Amino acid sequence: MNINATILGQVISFAIFVWFCMKYVWPALIGAMEERKKTIADGLEAADRAVRDLELAQNKALDQLKEAKQEAASIIDEAKKRANSIIEESKDKAREEGDRLIVSAKAEIEQESNKAREELRTQVATLAIAGAEKILERSISEEDNRDIVDGLAAQL
């Protein structure tokens, strides 16, 4: 056997093998690699989008948290203002009620004072009439006059 013929047969066999691989095997491998490359690129792009979406969501959550805190502070301030206004209204009502009670008490005191004066006048008139009757019943001397006046003063 000739070594050159063997090498030539091997070269031809290798060339057919390379042609067969390039024609049928290589395109399938290249297609699979391209598909895998595309899948990996899509996965990386999706991961990047997810990272951006996560950052946006975190920023949005922080913004909403800030808004909620501001709204809570606003509600608390409004509640404090309302509480203060209610307290002021209560104080005003209490002052009005106190003033009304004072006026009512003064009126009642005035009424009682007038009633006492009227009773006192009635009693003084009664005493004056009684004193006059006593004076008329007996003769008046200075000593009797003083006794009557002292008696009337003691009764008053």
Structural write-up:
This protein has helices at residues 3-137, 142-155. The termini are far apart. It has one domain (3-155). The protein is mostly helical and 156 residues long. The radius of gyration is 61 Å and the shape is rod-shaped. The mean pLDDT is 86. Helix 1 (3-137) runs antiparallel to helix 2 (142-155). The chain is built from two helices and no strands.
Q: What is the molecular shape?
A: rod-shaped
Mean pLDDT: 86
How far apart are the termini? 174 Å
The beta-strand count equals: 0
What radius of gyration results from the CA coordinates?
Answer: 61 Å
Structural class: mainly alpha
User: Helix segment count?
Assistant: 2
Major pleated sheet: none
- Approximate helicity band: over 70%
Q: Which residues sit in consecutive blocks of at least 5 with pLDDT less than 50?
A: none
What layout of secondary structure does this protein have?
Layout: H1 3-137, H2 142-155
Helix pairs in contact: 1-2
Descriptive labels:
about 160 residues, mainly alpha, about 95% helix, rod-shaped
Structure summary:
The protein is mainly α and 156 residues long.
